[in-house]
Design a protein that fits this description.
The chain has 20 helices and 26 strands. The chain is of the alpha/beta class. Helix 1 runs parallel beside helix 6, helix 6 crosses helix 8 and helix 7 runs antiparallel to helix 8. The protein is globular and about 95 Å long.
Length: about 650
């Protein structure tokens, strides 16, 4: 989609649904109401296709031009027992005619495909919201599985909501009776019926979904046409039924985006594209050594499609082999990457330490999830910061870069590649499950906007001995960056030895000298400390008297959206509060200490038990106040707004 706009609208993400601005005669004589934003949650069994349904609704919403943010939520089990609470899968989409930052705190519309989906999600649904239920599933056995003694559709427990009973299964089977499908095959299309109904309710485009279905089932054209028919039947049902007397319009977000060409993108896809772009900008082949692990596997899947861009992917037998292969590729002169999550980082730690010692560029992409051990594989968390900072034996400093939104994963990846290539060091890129699976609009950048990442390989001797002999010293450093030369194996005259044993400064020979070890440890630390990162920017609007805030909210990574939405709410209530967000966690921006000292109170929301706050207290001796959550879900804007208000008034 393309938008011709000026600047983001200053509206509170997470405010109540916008007022009805106009109404008129819609299709079939029905009323059409205009809203400024809507939050929809599709929920059902893991086999009901809720993620696909949400993805398609999101794609059409992006095409229409709304700003959007999504929150897929699915169980860790490959196939949990059907109709049970642990097996519920959901997809939440927040879309608006203005700039938004989160998937929303609570859905305005819940589509519940069965009793388990209703029970698992009802607590999040505010009074007065719309609930669309598949009545065909509210029979005795499915209700008993989740503890319903009586039907919630009949016992009055849903009186606070606008309930729309729809026999989705029956209607879908009836719509497909001429396709010669079995009942089971026809039932599988009920998610497309629901998608068609919601597409009618919110005036979403339909052409893209029909094209997608025909492409997805190209080898089974009868199944493709059945899904298209179910989708159209859902649309027509909304058009003709008396139960849906109103449809809604949410205008494109014409003021939310700078002019450009946009597409909807998830964090893992943006990160993958960032790796491809980094390889092209560095003029180096990209080598990914990886082992599948949720929620990082999508990156391996995506990069395997891009051999035409000089990308080579290797699915190793385990995490240790994966990073070993990647480090070997780095030694061979390639842009080396390994992808994993928290448990895999633990297994890779020794080889990361080896990369620190060898001083070779290596991107370690860690998509954080709930822990410890295998923990919550499909849920989000920010609890690997200290592991990335210190999780190696010896003094082994590694730079850390953290994206803040799904689209920002692209830029953060290029930044991490810049640091790795310039300073010859492994770099942690810390994303998380919320960013990895969530999506938002992304402006596709022009090629000339991307940084130049080209490197100079060593091409000849770089040191002269006392007798005048010219030799190659693999650990003779650049005076500005302290990076050692990068010599491609096989280059005549640049033969050198590397390994895990401590090196002698300059020559790279094995050394057990205490003074040399002290020097090398301090030099590696100084190299990381000296990495050039931008100063942190503070959003602190002054009042009419020229006064700023007394309270600063400081975040990192994926908390950016909820924090910013919470800050907007607090400011909308007339309070003063400042906000800053960290991308670089090692080294910290050089002005961070001065920024923290300006404020009486510093609040640090994190999806862990206070890891960044611990680092800030240790380094800057500041009384950083933690607000933490480790539920496997992102913060809600209203939750943080209340925390901020309490801190301001404390």
């Amino acid at each position: 989609m393309t938008s011709q706009v000026s600047s983001p609208a200053e509206q509170a993400d997470g405010a109540l649904v916008g007022e009805q601005r106009s109404s008129g005669d819609g299709g079939g004589g029905k009323e059409v109401r205009r809203l400024d934003r809507v939050i929809i949650r599709f929920a059902g069994d893991s086999g009901d296709g809720m993620q696909l349904t949400g993805d398609r609704f999101t794609s059409e919403t992006a095409t229409f031009g709304n700003d959007l943010s999504t929150l897929p939520n699915f169980p860790a089990e490959i196939r949990a027992p059907a109709g049970t609470l642990p097996g519920v899968s959901s997809f939440q989409l927040h879309f608006a005619d203005h700039d938004i930052l989160t998937p929303g705190d609570a859905p305005n519309v819940l589509v519940a495909m069965n009793p388990a989906a209703l029970k698992a999600n009802l607590a999040d649904v505010p009074r007065g919201a719309d609930i669309i239920v598949n009545t065909d599933e509210f029979t005795k056995r499915p209700m008993a599985k989740v503890g319903y003694a009586t039907s919630p559709l009949e016992d009055g427990s849903l009186e606070a909501y606008h309930v729309h009973p729809v026999p989705l299964t029956t209607l879908t089977i009836e719509a497909l009776k001429d396709f010669g499908l079995s009942r089971k095959e026809a039932e599988r299309s009920k998610n497309m019926f629901a998608l068609g109904l919601l597409s009618w309710m919110y005036h979403r485009p339909t052409e893209g979904t029909e094209k997608f279905l025909r492409a997805k089932f190209a080898k089974k054209p009868d199944i493709a046409e059945a899904n298209v028919a179910a989708f159209r039947a859902g649309w027509n049902f909304g058009e003709t039924t008396e139960d849906f007397a109103v449809s809604y319009e949410v205008a494109p977000a014409t003021k939310a985006f700078p002019t450009g060409t946009y597409r909807n993108i998830s964090g893992n896809l943006a990160l993958s594209y960032g790796l491809v772009a980094a390889g092209k900008q560095a003029d180096l082949p990209v080598y990914l050594g990886s082992y599948p692990i949720t929620p990082a596997s999508d990156i391996l899947h995506e990069l395997s499609k891009h051999k035409n861009f000089g990308v080579r992917t290797f699915q190793a037998e385990d995490e240790i082999a994966a990073i070993g292969a990647a480090l070997g590729a780095a030694f061979g002169g390639q842009l080396a990457v390994t992808t994993t999550s928290g448990p895999g980082v633990a297994l890779k730690s020794e080889t990361i330490g080896l990369a620190v010692s060898l001083e070779l560029p290596l991107l370690v992409v860690a998509i954080q999830r709930g822990g410890p051990s295998t923990g919550l594989p499909t849920k989000t968390e920010q609890a690997d910061l200290l592991q990335a900072m210190y999780g190696r034996n010896g003094e082994a400093p590694v730079p850390i870069v953290a994206p803040r939104t799904p689209a920002d994963c692209f830029d953060a990846t290029l930044d991490a590649a810049r640091i790795a290539l310039t300073y010859r060091t492994p770099v942690f890129l810390l994303s998380d499950g919320y960013l990895a699976n969530g999506s938002e609009p992304w402006r596709i950048p022009d090629i000339d906007e991307l940084p130049d990442l080209r490197v100079q390989f060593a091409s000849g001797p770089n040191h002269q001995l006392a007798d005048g002999t010219e030799v190659f010293w693999p650990y003779k450093r650049d005076e500005q960056t302290l990076a050692r030369p990068w010599a491609v194996p096989g280059t005549p005259g640049l033969e050198h030895r590397i390994g895990g044993i401590e090196k002698q400064d300059g020559t790279g020979n094995i050394s057990y000298d205490p003074a040399n070890h002290d020097f090398m440890v301090r030099t590696r630390q100084a190299k990381v400390d000296g990495i050039e990162v931008p100063d942190i920017e503070v959003d602190d609007p002054v009042n009419a008297a020229g006064e700023g805030a007394d309270t600063l909210v400081l975040g990192w990574g994926s908390t950016y959206g909820p924090i910013t939405a919470g800050v907007r709410r607090v400011r909308g209530a007339g309070e003063r509060i400042a906000q800053a967000h960290l991308r670089h966690l090692n080294p910290f921006p050089r002005n961070l200490g001065e920024v923290l000292a300006r404020y009486d109170k510093v609040i640090v929301p994190e999806m862990n038990l206070g890891q960044l706050a611990t680092l800030l207290r240790a380094k800057y001796l500041v009384d950083a106040r933690s607000h933490t959550q480790v539920s496997g879900m992102p913060f809600k804007a209203e939750q943080l707004a209340e925390v901020f208000k309490e801190a301001i008034n404390d």
